[in-house]
Amino acid sequence: MDMVSQHGLSPRSAPYLWRLFATAASFSLFGIGGVLLRVLVFPLLSLLPGDALTRRTRARAVVSWTFYKFVRFMYHSGVLTYEVEGIERLGRPGQMVIANHPSLIDVVVLIAFIRDANCVVKQSLWDNPSMRGPIRAAGFISNSGSMDMLDEAAGALQEGQTLVIFPEGTRTTPGHTPEFHRGAAAIAVRGARLVTPVVISVSPTTLTKAEPWYSIPSRRFHFRLRVGEDIDPQQFTAQAPLPIASRKLNDHLHQHFMKELATDERSAN
């Protein structure tokens, strides 16, 4: 089935105060869960037999499973509804998954539905008490902005890993259009077998860069994730040097997301 939907299963939204409590419980659960993974789960997993690749694959599966359970908790507690389209096309070897970044939980939802994915994450999260355990055990890549990071990310794709990246580098400012940095496209033309855009929309907007977690909307927010058509990076590299190819790919991706997000906004209205 091409679409999995949990939208509209509840006849009406939970009361505001309950959703505020459920949102607080969700963030608390996420923080405590991250610490438990770091101090208890991953040390135990490291005792199991297997080489470095096996341990990394095992850790990523655990992270994906826990993120999925977290999303389901937010759904069942009345915080959100969600809809994912085409998710079965994510997780292929050498695939770069490029997504816009409207909310705090974008990466959580994406990783929840990809069992074995690498991800470029913000440098600050490497020292976050809740996130550093899962990030390091899963072998995620720090977004330091250096050439070493670009080489590491391209190398992961060349090895056949799936790589998730947010070209904006941070959450979209409400009321502004996404601005893609060229780093993601530079990685893609150097190592990706295919590039797959994923358009994320959140309605009403919440958990944005400008809003604290407790500034919840008047009703459940709906999280929609749509997997777009694959892009072959070779169409940009065949007749142009890498710097020009990355610029053209970045422009192509930006136009794609602008068009799709405008369509989503018209549909929401």
UniProtKB/TrEMBL annotation:
Short name of one Pfam family for this protein?
Answer: Acyltransferase
Q: Does the keyword Acyltransferase apply?
A: yes
Q: What is the official name of this protein in its record?
A: 1-acyl-sn-glycerol-3-phosphate acyltransferase
Transmembrane stretches in the record are 20-48
UniProt keyword annotations, A-Z: Acyltransferase, Membrane, Transferase, Transmembrane, Transmembrane helix
Q: Which SUPFAM superfamilies match?
A: Glycerol-3-phosphate (1)-acyltransferase
UniProt pathway = Lipid metabolism
* Segments forming domain Phospholipid/glycerol acyltransferase: 95-203
Keyword Transmembrane belongs to the record: yes
Molecular functions per Gene Ontology: 1-acylglycerol-3-phosphate O-acyltransferase activity
Please give the biological process terms from Gene Ontology that the record holds.
phosphatidic acid biosynthetic process
**Sorted alphabetically, which InterPro entries does this protein's record hold?**
Plipid/glycerol_acylTrfase
